[in-house]
Design a protein that fits this description.
The longest helix has 18 residues, at 161-178. The chain has a two-stranded antiparallel sheet with strand order 1-2. The model has no long low-confidence stretch (mean pLDDT 94). The chain has helices spanning 3-8, 12-21, 27-34, 41-49, 63-77, 84-96, 114-126, 134-140, 161-178, 182-197, 227-237, 246-254, 285-298, and strands at 98-99, 105-106. It contains 13 helices and two strands. The chain is globular and about 50 Å long. Helices cover 50% and strands 1% of the residues. The protein has 301 residues and is mostly helical.
Length: 301
């Protein structure tokens, strides 16, 4: 079975993105499939878990973390924020969920760490919610090398790949949905250059591999960085590939199986609030979808 056919046999969350990103299906066909996310499969399961107060159960000592994970998953799946189901899911979060350890700030206004706040900004923008002062805060926290680091308040002086990719994704969502501004675009491009200067996985000073896990493919990624996550961001952000992506693209291409699929290599169980049946070492539809669309964009298939 061709990999694309295998993807089309999956959940609506996978199917609609396959139709859009790999098969260039018409807008009507894509949107009809996307509308099924809220009512079938994984998306319906997640929405069915949400309580009237906006929370999703899980870690009762840190309920906002569980809210973050579930809203991120619904965003990955493509829940339409303008749909009745999307508005119904977001309204109680907006109205009642707060960051209890940081002055009870509203959920969509974020907390203190840029690695979390980058994701919160992406969610607030995607779900069309007010993000308070998140954008100027994140811009003010950009470091001299162009990156961001959650440990800056503890003395870190250089950027972190993990934190930087979270902020870049949030800023890109803000630009696409709320409109680009010079300050935001410049900050995002500086952060993007931080990754590209390091060829998405190597130290700028020595050229050594920063972390072997950067070349291991995972989904969901949560706050974790890997080269496929960086390439998927760049696919969304850049009109065309940059030659400094070559090694990362080669890594992704080299991991394709004989049947055209990719395996889940580095799961992060703490970032997953639903069992999608994907196990370490087995073929992963999420990774296969993302790898195929990245290679297609880069002309490196």
């Amino acid at each position: 079975m061709k990999a694309v056919d295998w993807l089309l046999e999956s959940d609506p969350a996978i199917r609609w993105q396959t139709l859009r990103d790999l098969l260039d299906a018409s807008t009507d066909v894509v949107e009809a499939e996307r509308a099924r996310v809220a009512h079938e499969g994984w998306g319906a399961e997640l929405l069915g878990r949400q309580a009237p107060d906006g929370k999703f159960g899980g870690d009762t000592g840190n309920p906002e973390w569980t809210v973050l994970l579930n809203l991120l998953w619904l965003q990955h799946m493509g829940l339409d924020p303008q749909s009745e189901d999307g508005r119904r899911a977001v309204a109680p979060v907006r109205d009642g969920v707060t960051w209890h350890w940081w002055d009870n700030r509203p959920f969509f206004h974020g907390e203190v760490e840029p690695c979390i706040n980058g994701r919160v900004l992406g969610l607030a923008t995607y779900y069309e919610q007010d993000s308070g002062d998140l954008v100027p805060r994140l811009l003010g926290e950009q470091m001299a090398d162009g990156g961001w680091n959650c440990e800056q308040e503890n003395g870190a002086t250089v950027g972190s790949f993990h934190t930087t990719i979270n902020v870049l994704e949030g800023l890109l969502e803000f630009e696409r949905t709320s409109g680009a501004t010079t300050d935001v675009t410049n900050a995002r491009l500086r952060g993007q250059e931080y990754l590209l200067e390091r060829r998405l996985l190597r130290r700028l000073t020595t050229g050594e591999l920063i972390d072997p896990e950067f070349s291991q493919l995972s989904f969901p990624t949560g706050y974790h960085y890997d080269v496929l996550r960086a390439l998927d961001y760049l696919r969304a952000a850049a009109p065309e590939p940059d030659e400094r992506m070559t090694e990362a693209l080669d890594i992704v291409r080299s991991k394709r199986r004989d049947d055209g699929r990719w395996n889940l290599e580095n799961p992060h169980p703490d970032q997953l609030d639903i069992d999608m049946g994907e196990r370490e070492g087995d073929a992963s539809r999420w990774i296969t979808l993302r790898a195929m669309r990245v290679l297609r964009w880069a002309g490196a298939g």
